[in-house]
């Protein structure tokens, strides 16, 4: 009988599906191994601990968003990324909810999500030649407000789709991002 080799990617993909269904706090080595119909050994072969796996899961989530965004030629920086973020998260809406909303997470998981998401949005701002010239405090304000705008937009987008007003929502989102960046840049 041929043994299946469980790769890091395979485990992360299954862990993401597990989290979408059962949540972060239910993601234990034993539960994931049962879900994947295997022993815990392949998990520990790829990850030092469950904390490492959860951290890799969140990093992988942001990396996939970034990879799919990089494949498209966008000219409007944060505004275009906001549109991409909203549309992307409709495809993995349950995972999005578990990462950002469902409150039942251990504090270490919450800190990991916060740290990784802050770094991701900081890097996004640094990639924009106009925005990276803002002061550190302005960049931090922009990062916090932009992040809230994105998260709220993903939730709002569901409602706009239901009433067939998606194009209206996307235009409004573009205006909101433009106004936000101009407001932050004007502050001293």
Automatic annotation (TrEMBL):
Coiled coil: none annotated. Signal peptide: none annotated. Keywords: DNA-binding. It comes from the Bacteria. It holds the Pfam family TetR_N. Residues 5-65 form the HTH tetR-type domain. Residues 28-47 bind DNA. This is TetR/AcrR family transcriptional regulator. It comes from Candidatus Enterococcus myersii.
């Amino acid at each position: 009988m041929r043994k299946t080799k469980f790769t890091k990617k395979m485990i992360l993909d299954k862990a993401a599906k597990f989290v979408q269904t059962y949540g972060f706090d239910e993601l234990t080595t034993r539960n994931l191994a049962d879900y994947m119909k295997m022993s815990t050994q392949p998990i520990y072969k790829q990850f030092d601990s469950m904390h490492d796996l959860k951290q890799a899961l969140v990093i992988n989530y942001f990396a996939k968003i970034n990879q799919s965004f990089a494949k498209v030629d966008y000219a409007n920086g944060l505004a275009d990324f906001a549109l991409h973020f909203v549309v992307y998260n409709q495809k993995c809406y349950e995972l999005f909810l578990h990462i950002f909303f469902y409150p039942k997470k251990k504090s270490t998981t919450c800190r990991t999500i916060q740290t990784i998401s802050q770094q991701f949005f900081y890097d996004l701002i640094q990639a924009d030649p106009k925005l990276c010239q803002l002061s550190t405090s302005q960049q931090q304000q922009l990062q916090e407000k932009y992040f809230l705008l994105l998260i709220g937009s993903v939730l709002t987008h569901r409602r706009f789709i239901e009433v067939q007003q998606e194009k209206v929502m996307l235009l409004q989102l573009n205006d909101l991002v433009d106004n936000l960046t101009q407001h932050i840049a004007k502050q001293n």
